[in-house]
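Why run this: before we spend reagent on co-expression, it is cheaper to look at a predicted model of the complex and decide which construct boundaries make sense. The entries below are exactly what would go into the expression plan.
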Amino acid sequence: MAKHETSLNLLFSALGDPTRRAILSALAGGPRSVTQLAAPHDMALPTFMGHLKKLEEAGLVQTEKLGRTRTCSLCPDALQPVRSWLEEQRDLWEGRLDRFDDYVTKLAEERNDA
Amino acid sequence: MAKHETSLNLLFSALGDPTRRAILSALAGGPRSVTQLAAPHDMALPTFMGHLKKLEEAGLVQTEKLGRTRTCSLCPDALQPVRSWLEEQRDLWEGRLDRFDDYVTKLAEERNDA
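The model came back. Tokens follow.
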């Protein structure tokens, strides 16, 4: 599978979970320690770490260990393939609507010519 | 969980698979029968139908049975929650950068005043 497709699979799958989306929203405010990030979520730490790992694998989050604290930060450009895919879909759809417009115009012209 | 969150979960999870994204791109060109849609994909029909079902559950695709043919079409507005979520993330991130700008400006002013 193309690298681009694999990366879209990881990105979309990572975004398909409310805890992981909440982590991204929290990190949009700046880097946070794992403890700070986990605090609002009512789940066992290993489960929470599993969510962080998915975000890291998708390239959405990076973590760094400074002394005894693991700090997480956002990789904001990582969402770009998702934005590009959505734009492609819109272009495909609008291309179709344009072609439909052309077809209707052509039909109308043919009717006027008849 | 809020309805909006559930809908984002279903949408992002549905998009996290290359076969399902290819189905959406194909349907952007107009409605297709299941047979037409399945043709380029090297998989058993039940597996392919499973992918279609995920897209239907997320509200991205609707299917209609006309005689013996099941026809699928795109629900293009269904991607709107995904677009809105991405815009929210960008706003959060840019809000943070603006605050950082303000902070740097304030520091510079304080240094000039000193």
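The first strand of chain A starts at residue 32 and ends at 33. The interface with chain B takes residues 1, 5, 8-13, 15-18, 21, 24-25, 28-30, 74, 76, 79, 82-83, 85-86, 88-89, 92-93, 95-96 of chain A (CB under 8 Å). Bring this page to Monday's planning discussion.
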